[in-house]
């Protein structure tokens, strides 16, 4: 802004408008104009003039304009200029203080903030800021002092000096380390600034200086973290603790706030003496009386703050607290803590103390679980004392668990609007309590489990069961259950669970299906999911039918539970398939409903079908398996045919239903997979022979039935909507894949020809989006059956799905990626299946070379794999090796590939380097005698191209080649060399 | 062997998580056979954000803290074949704050990590593809992508409340 544009009256008018306008657009516009003034060469003059104006708005804006100028220009100022600004600011402070108006404090604070910014960034030039401020105020004349003598200070200006001190440390905390040497600044503040502040704090009424002390506490935490400075605040803090017990609620509460801050940010500020003093305050008469008075006054805010004080104080040395329990003299202290935890009211809604205490009790519990060695040292290696301590810990945590058990009860009226307001937080509280129960289980052990079970038993046998009690116990049992498995389960626990399930537990739970009871049902489902150790044990097996019956009724009864109960059913059926064979008939009606009812959620239908199939798999007798599968597939087939022939696939809903039916076949395939990795763990050799024989004959034609459904749904040319549907192809491919990993014959184990036929049929489809799924299926067939698959079948399939459709494949990165992936798999698993294909050297290699220049990460990854596998040829025989060596050496593939790798590596993104490195590494390892020349040739050609493109030639590549060869492909060294060279040629630095 | 720095920091993370963790998330160290805490291996749950396709699911992750944590980032994994463009087929999450060579800093807390992952769920990074199916669908067939994400949310659905 030019000098001519400046008009002070205009500025004053704008400032007044800024603070009076209610039009946001106008405010933004005015702000823009004023900011231009603030950044202009007149800003110092404007600041000064505005501060002399009577308007408080102008005064504040003047102080603010100083801040802008200081922040923008301070670094460029000479010492003289800085002093000039300091004197101006001091002058305004004097004037404002002498005006003695009530409403100017915020302007004074802003001016002091400006002085503080100058001081903390220029303390070497202006070392005596407090003294300067004092002298200026006392003499009513701005001056810069070079004297540190505090004894000359009288107390008139203590409060303003403390305010300045407070602002200085607040500004220091805000400073970025990059702008100033903070370590020296912290040293200066500690040595020169703090002693005066300390003296002022000491002689001032502490109540008046608590804010200043609070800021210093925060600052000291930062300073001690960022430097080697260590403060001794003991005298001041001793004063502070005295304030806590003053008979003045306001002072006491503010002192507690500062103490909480100290404990939260830097508890080491409190030395042992001070800690003892605080301990005797909290747990002595004062603590009890103070808490009582807060309770009487219903002062919940300060009750929470007091409990925070207690918790933070105890957490400063939790091991020490843990060991105190051994001494009966401390019993009252622990009683006090228990009473505080058990503060009346619903957590979150009415009280927060118990929430804060979860953290404390968890820390304490972990001290007993994980720090026994340290406890023993504190107990002077007295093992009797340790035993007593552990017994008392068990007892105290039992009581804590009882408190929290009550606290997590779901409020009776769950539909209450008030509950909805704090529900999310309350549920989080419950989850924290559940974690706490898991933490204390190693201490309280089985007794806690028994207590929880007893509350359930008592309620079940009661005429008027309390469902909230039952829910709370089940909820906590779920959390503890993670501690058990089949190997470590205690027989007592099994018998407690038996007692529950022997009673009319399910009847009682199901008897109340009101909305209020929804949590009990939901938690019961979780409970049944969490006790897998029980139903895997022979004791639990006989309860499986009643468990499943309950889960089925929950699933069918309400959409609230269908996801969780179907998940539990699926899990139980999978885990206990052998024991549930007798239960199979109970599924039959349900299965019909699941398959025929379009309104069932697909995931539920599929989970139940999977559960059913898992149990069928557990039958072991293939004849019965076949019979059941025949019925199941018959149901699905009937429904599919009905949907297709009656043209019922008219909308998204019916299409999703059909896809879900197809997915059910996939779920049957998954359920029928062998549950053990080793077939001999599941079947005897005799059974294996029987199964192989049965499924080879396949008396119910299960294989054909599956193929028929797939054909009807996926290759029916009369329905283009289905024919081109990507998801249908995906599901069909998944169905075929389920049998590929099976080590014996089975209903989903198909001949390679069958799968290939499907791939060939579908690959003619117009929808190219289905191709990646077909390629993946082909890839899976090769991976599973490369040893037995016919080479001519592979070769002809490659010709049909890949080579004959190459122009189409080249248009789509996904097709390029999935086709190169198959080629890589074939080369990896059995190279002879592809390398003698007449088109291998003519088309395939060329295609894979071309794609080294791609920018698509997935393509690059698959092409890197292809080349690496081809170079290494791990599964090749002598003939294959000779054939490929000949290509690399005689047919110059080595030269061509090396050039392609180097030229594309240099141009690639950093995150893609790995892919080129991999190929280069194997070239060095496999062709050590030739690779140097190949690299020389490659770089010469790259340089030739660079010259043509008027780019500087690469100079240091000879050194790079040497280094590369010397690494002999050893991973780390090799990677470093390539990375460094890539950075160098791209003009980048490593970080 | 876990360094003492690593142990102290993990204890600190445990404390910090207890003191302050976002609603709907959980995170805790696994237990050893003897019942002691295995601070280097945690199990956590990340809820899908409300009003997104991911809503309703609580997605489990495992968190492995290496011996030289916090110099090195933890490895965070969803279950295998988790459907998301930035999750590898193994379940490993591709996120810059979990990458030592990118944005990992030792000061990053567990809370920041899980919130970062929650954010990633509905805001995939198309420049860091980690798995082909979800990345392909996200880029080319958004309807299928959305359907699969919703199905996955049902699979990992939280209990009724």
TrEMBL record, chain A:
The compartments listed are: Nucleus
Origin, by domain of life?
A: Eukaryota
Q: Which GO terms describe its biological process?
A: protein import into nucleus
Predominant localisation class:
nucleus
User: Mind telling me which Gene3D superfamilies this protein's record contains?
Assistant: Leucine-rich Repeat Variant
Transport as a keyword of this entry, yes or no, is yes
- What InterPro entries is this protein classified in? ARM-like, ARM-type_fold, Importin_beta-like_NTR
How is this protein annotated for GO cellular component? cytoplasm; nucleus
What are the UniProt keywords, alphabetically? Nucleus, Transport
Similarity comment text for this entry: Belongs to the importin beta family.
The name of this protein is: Importin N-terminal domain-containing protein
Q: Which organism is it from?
A: Pachysolen tannophilus NRRL Y-2460
List the lineage, top down.
Answer: Eukaryota, Fungi, Dikarya, Ascomycota, Saccharomycotina
TrEMBL record, chain B:
Please give a single GO biological process term from the UniProt record: mitotic spindle elongation
Q: What GO molecular function terms would the record report?
A: ATP binding; SUMO transferase activity
What are the annotated GO cellular component locations?
Answer: condensed nuclear chromosome
Q: Which UniProt keywords apply?
A: ATP-binding, Nucleotide-binding, Nucleus, Transferase, Ubl conjugation pathway
Q: Which residues form the UBC core domain?
A: 5-158
Instruction: Tell me any Pfam family this protein matches.
Output: UQ_con
Highest taxon, organism lineage:
Eukaryota
- Quick one: which pathway? Protein modification; protein sumoylation
Q: Where in the cell is it found?
A: Nucleus
Q: Where is the active site?
A: 94
InterPro entries attached to this UniProt entry: Ub_conjugating_enzyme, UBC, UBQ-conjugating_AS, UBQ-conjugating_enzyme/RWD
Q: Main localisation, per the record? A: nucleus
PANTHER family, from UniProt?
Answer: UBIQUITIN-CONJUGATING ENZYME E2
Q: Please report which protein family the annotation says this sequence is part of.
A: Belongs to the ubiquitin-conjugating enzyme family.
Q: What is this protein called?
A: SUMO-conjugating enzyme UBC9
- The protein's organism comes out as Pachysolen tannophilus NRRL Y-2460
User: Taxonomically, what lineage is the organism?
Assistant: Eukaryota, Fungi, Dikarya, Ascomycota, Saccharomycotina
């Amino acid at each position: 802004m030019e000098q001519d544009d400046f008009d002070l009256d205009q500025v004053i008018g704008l400032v007044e408008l800024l603070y009076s306008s209610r039009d946001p657009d106008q405010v933004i516009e005015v702000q823009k104009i004023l900011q231009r003034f603030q950044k202009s060469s007149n800003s110092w003059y404007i600041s000064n003039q505005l501060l002399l104006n009577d308007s408080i708005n102008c005064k504040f804006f003047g102080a603010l304009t100083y801040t802008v100028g200081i922040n923008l220009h301070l670094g460029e100022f000479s010492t003289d200029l800085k002093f000039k600004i300091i004197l101006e600011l001091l002058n305004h402070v004097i004037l404002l203080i002498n005006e003695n108006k009530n409403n100017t404090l915020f302007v004074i604070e802003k001016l002091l903030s400006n002085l503080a910014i100058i001081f903390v960034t220029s303390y070497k030039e202006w070392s005596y800021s407090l003294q300067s401020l004092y002298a200026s105020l006392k003499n009513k004349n701005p001056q810069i002092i070079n004297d540190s003598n505090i004894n000359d200070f009288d107390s008139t200006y203590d409060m303003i000096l403390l305010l300045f001190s407070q602002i200085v440390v607040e500004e220091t905390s805000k400073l970025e380390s990059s702008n100033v040497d903070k370590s020296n600044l912290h040293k200066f503040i500690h040595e020169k600034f703090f002693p005066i502040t300390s003296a002022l704090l000491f002689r001032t009424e502490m109540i008046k200086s608590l804010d200043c002390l609070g800021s210093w506490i925060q600052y000291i935490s930062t300073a001690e973290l960022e430097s080697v400075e260590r403060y001794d605040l003991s005298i001041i803090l001793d004063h502070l603790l005295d304030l806590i017990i003053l008979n003045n609620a306001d002072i006491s509460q503010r002192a507690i706030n500062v103490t909480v801050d100290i404990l939260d940010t830097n508890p080491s500020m409190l030395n042992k003496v001070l800690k003892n003093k605080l301990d005797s305050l909290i747990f002595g008469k004062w603590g009890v009386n103070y808490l009582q008075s807060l309770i009487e006054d219903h002062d919940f805010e300060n009750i929470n703050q007091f409990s925070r004080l207690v918790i933070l104080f105890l957490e400063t040395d939790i091991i020490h607290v843990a060991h105190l329990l051994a001494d009966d003299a401390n019993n009252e202290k622990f009683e006090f803590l228990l009473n505080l935890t058990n503060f009346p009211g619903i957590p979150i809604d009415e009280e927060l103390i118990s929430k804060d205490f979860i953290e404390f009790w968890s820390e304490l519990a972990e001290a007993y679980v994980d720090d026994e060695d340290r406890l023993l040292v504190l107990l002077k290696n007295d093992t009797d004392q340790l035993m007593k301590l552990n017994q008392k810990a068990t007892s105290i945590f039992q009581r804590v668990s009882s408190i929290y058990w009550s606290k997590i009860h779901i409020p009776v009226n769950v539909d209450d609007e008030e509950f909805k307001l704090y529900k999310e937080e309350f549920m989080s509280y419950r989850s924290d309590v559940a974690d706490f129960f898991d933490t204390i289980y190693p201490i309280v052990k089985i007794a806690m489990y028994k207590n929880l079970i007893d509350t359930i038993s008592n309620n079940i046998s009661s005429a008027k069961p309390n469902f909230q009690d039952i829910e709370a116990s089940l909820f906590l049992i779920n959390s503890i259950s993670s501690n058990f498995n089949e190997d470590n389960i205690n027989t007592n626990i099994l018998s407690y669970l038996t007692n529950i399930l022997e009673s009319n537990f399910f009847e009682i739970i199901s008897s109340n299906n009101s909305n209020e009871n929804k949590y009990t049902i939901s938690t019961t489902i979780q409970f049944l999911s969490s006790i897998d150790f029980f139903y895997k044990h022979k004791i639990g097996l006989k309860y499986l039918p009643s468990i499943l019956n309950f889960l089925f009724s929950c699933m069918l009864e309400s959409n609230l539970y269908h996801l969780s109960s179907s998940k539990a059913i699926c899990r139980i059926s999978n885990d206990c398939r052998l024991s549930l064979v007798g239960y199979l008939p109970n599924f039959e009606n349900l299965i019909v409903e699941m398959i025929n009812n379009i309104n069932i959620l697909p995931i539920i239908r599929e989970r139940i079908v999977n559960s059913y199939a898992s149990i069928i798999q557990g039958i072991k007798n293939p004849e019965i398996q076949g019979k059941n599968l025949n019925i199941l597939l018959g149901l699905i087939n009937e429904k599919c045919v009905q949907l297709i022939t009656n043209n019922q696939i008219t909308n998204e809903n019916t299409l999703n239903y059909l896809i879900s039916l197809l997915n059910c076949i996939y779920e049957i395939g998954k359920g029928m997979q062998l549950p053990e990795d080793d077939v001999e763990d599941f079947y005897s050799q005799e059974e294996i022979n029987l199964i192989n024989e049965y499924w080879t004959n396949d008396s119910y034609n299960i294989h054909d039935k599956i193929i028929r459904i797939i054909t009807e749904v996926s290759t029916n040319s009369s329905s283009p909507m289905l024919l081109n549907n990507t998801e249908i192809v995906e599901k069909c491919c998944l169905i075929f894949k389920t049998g590929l990993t099976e080590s014996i014959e089975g209903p989903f184990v198909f001949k390679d020809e069958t799968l290939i036929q499907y791939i060939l049929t579908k690959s003619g489809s117009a929808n190219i989006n289905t191709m990646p799924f077909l390629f993946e299926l082909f890839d899976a067939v090769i991976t599973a059956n490369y040893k037995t698959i016919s080479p001519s079948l592979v070769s002809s399939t490659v010709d049909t799905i890949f080579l004959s459709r190459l122009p189409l494949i080249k248009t789509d990165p996904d097709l390029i990626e999935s086709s190169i992936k198959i080629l890589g798999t074939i080369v990896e698993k059995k190279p002879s299946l592809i390398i003698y294909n007449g088109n291998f050297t003519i088309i395939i290699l060329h295609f894979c070379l071309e794609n080294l220049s791609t920018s698509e990460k997935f393509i690059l990854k698959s092409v890197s794999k292809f080349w690496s596998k081809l170079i290494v040829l791990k599964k090749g025989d002598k003939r294959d090796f000779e054939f490929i060596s000949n290509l690399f050496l005689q047919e110059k593939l080595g030269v061509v590939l090396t050039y392609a790798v180097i030229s594309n590596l240099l141009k690639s993104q950093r995150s893609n380097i790995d892919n080129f490195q991999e190929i280069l590494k194997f070239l060095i390892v496999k062709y050590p005698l030739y690779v140097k020349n190949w690299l020389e040739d490659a770089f010469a050609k790259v340089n030739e191209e660079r010259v043509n493109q008027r780019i500087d030639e690469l100079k240091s590549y000879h050194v790079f080649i040497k280094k590369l060869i010397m690494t002999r492909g050893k991973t780390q060294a090799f990677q470093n060399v390539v990375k460094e060279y890539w950075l160098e040629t791209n003009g980048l630095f490593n970080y | 062997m876990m360094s003492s720095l690593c142990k102290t920091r993990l204890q600190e993370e445990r404390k910090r998580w207890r003191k302050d963790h976002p609603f709907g998330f959980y995170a805790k160290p696994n237990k050893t056979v003897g019942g002691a805490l295995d601070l280097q291996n945690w199990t956590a749950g990340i809820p899908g954000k409300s009003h997104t396709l991911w809503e309703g699911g609580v997605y489990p992750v495992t968190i492995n803290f290496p011996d030289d944590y916090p110099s090195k980032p933890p490895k965070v994994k969803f279950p295998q074949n988790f459907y998301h463009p930035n999750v590898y087929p193994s379940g490993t999450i591709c996120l810059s704050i979990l990458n030592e060579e990118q944005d990992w800093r030792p000061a990053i807390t567990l809370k920041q990590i899980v919130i970062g992952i929650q954010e990633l769920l509905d805001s995939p990074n198309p420049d860091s593809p980690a798995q082909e199916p979800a990345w392909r669908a996200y880029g080319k067939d958004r309807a299928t992508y959305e359907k699969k994400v919703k199905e996955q949310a049902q699979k990992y659905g939280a209990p009724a409340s």
